[in-house]
Amino acid sequence: MAKAKKYFFCRECGYQSSSWLGRCPECGKWNTFDEEVVQAATSSAKSAKQQGLSLSEPKRIEEVTYDETVRMSTHCDEFDRVLGGGIVPGSLILLGGEPGIGKSTLLLQTALSIKDKRLLYVSGEESEQQIKMRADRIGSPQGEMYVVSETSTNRIFQHIEAVKPDILIVDSIQTINSEDIDSSAGSISQIRECTTEFQRYAKLSGTPVLLIGHITKDGTLAGPKVMEHIVDAVLQFEGDRNYGFRILRALKNRFGSTAELGIFEMQNSGLREVPNPSEILLSQRDENLSGAAISATLEGARPIFIEVQSLVSSAVYGTPQRNANGFDFRRLSMLLAVLEKRCGFKLGAKDVFLNIAGGIRVNDPAIDLAVACSILSSNVDIPIPPTVCLAAEMGLNGEIRPVSRVEQRIAEAARLGFEKIFVSRYNTKGLDKKKYAIDIVEVAVIEDAFRKLFA
Ligand code: TYD
Ligand code: MG
Q1: pLDDT (tens digit, 9 = 90+) per residue, 47-86?
Q2: Cα–chain-centroid distance for residue 280?
């Protein structure tokens, strides 16, 4: 038996040190070191692994062949889209998300819907009965599906030997442990070891492996960087638990774009795909209430029209309250400062609450103008007509800046039946306005937008 050793690992980046350090020399974070007992693999185990790795030999690049059509469809368009067109054989995919967001549901549902394949679903969190109960709510298997409740990688590989699956799903990496090392499940060294074992299996057998990983409170994957560079794709499942919408994003994808986005709705019978999010997000709208503005945002290549709601009221207490839901709080403070300082709207003594409908978090800067106008609309208590949408970024001087792919936003706005779209004046060069069945309103500074909307 090899000797057990103690090491210290950085929680953030996985840096290993033989003594405790206050500051990680690798990532520069403070107070992130945890002690773990690590047992080196026995020499026989090691040589077996080295054997495994030397199975492939160098080839001339011309001789390497691959087949684009071998991507496996998950039979879920939203999932396929985020993966870049389906699951690539031999890939290791990590699905991260907060507890309770629906990761197990998503992968179980995917497992059930994949046709003509043999699947092994390993759960370290739920018993087989629990998995079955959940599966019964979602649907019946389209392929051959095996489930097992197991936490040891050694036994998981025995099950794999027996079942010989075409796809392996493991829920979750934090509950799995390898007997080669002696620290507890969920520790950095275990996560690293188990991920590496699954990676080796995926690469050697060509079987894709999907791993579920939990996210810590601050939004990083537990044992984050350690896994991120081992796996081929990192997908994140997110959403506000009080709403039904869930968004699947690719944070890293060796086989596709990270700009794509999948949208789902959590229902009683599992997750429903939402192919056309704008229509759903906008349909709940009551006409003519002040403080609401619609933003023509793009997430990846996909236009999503989102309603921004603001409530501006006189502060009851000395310090005004600010709250942003689904929008970066610092960016809200900045927009408020610009409205106050450059445009003279007195918001300093007002409470400002901002909400993005559907609990969706938006990264596109084109939402700025809708945020600013919804605040102004609530402030003056004049509604923005529901036939108007906006797409522009706002700068520190209140100038309205161009955004990417404005034609696509305009075309989508016209398709959805909007009558006017507000864009930056600098965004319309070379744009054939007559081509679109929508009125394109150009603005240069925020006062322009204010005048055109409320005067
Ligand atoms: P789950 O997939 O267990 O989350 P995770 O694996 O990310 O921790 O799903 C969590 C929630 O989803 C649970 O609170 C109940 C809800 N849910 C539904 O609303 N409908 C369903 O059909 C299922 C299976 C779950
Ligand atoms: Mg789960």
Answers
A1: 444 444 455 678 888 888 776 668 889 888 899 989 988 9
A2: 20
Helix (H, G, I), strand (E, B) or coil at 8: strand
Are residues 263 and 307 part of one domain? Answer: no
| CA 115 vs CA 37, 134, 140, 170: distances in Å | 43, 19, 11, 19
342: containing domain: 280-453
The string of pLDDT tens digits covering residues 149-199 is 999 999 999 999 999 999 999 998 999 999 888 888 888 888 889 999 999
Number of folded domains that form the chain: 3
Ligand nearest to the CA of 172: 2
Closest-lying ligand 1 atom to the alpha carbon of residue 171: 6
Q: Is there a single domain that holds both residue 268 and residue 402?
A: no
Does 103 sit in the ligand 1 pocket, CB within 6 Å? Answer: yes
Give the separation between CA 202 and CA 443, rounded to whole angstroms: 53
Give the residue, by CA position, lying nearest to ligand 1 atom 8. 100
Are 30 and 111 within one domain?
Answer: no
- 233 shares a domain with 303: no
Which residue's alpha carbon is nearest to atom 10 within ligand 1? 100
Q: Would you say 210 and 232 are in contact if contact means Cβ atoms under 8 Å apart? A: no
Residues lower than pLDDT 50 in the chain: 1, 43-53
Amino acid code (one letter) for 387: T
Please give the number of the atom of ligand 1 that sits closest to the Cα of 138: 22
Whether the CB of 100 sits within 6 Å of ligand 1: yes
Which ligand 1 atom sits closest to the C-alpha of 268?
20
* Best residue among 95, 103, 105 to mutate for probing ligand 1, ranked by most atoms within 8 Å of CB: 105
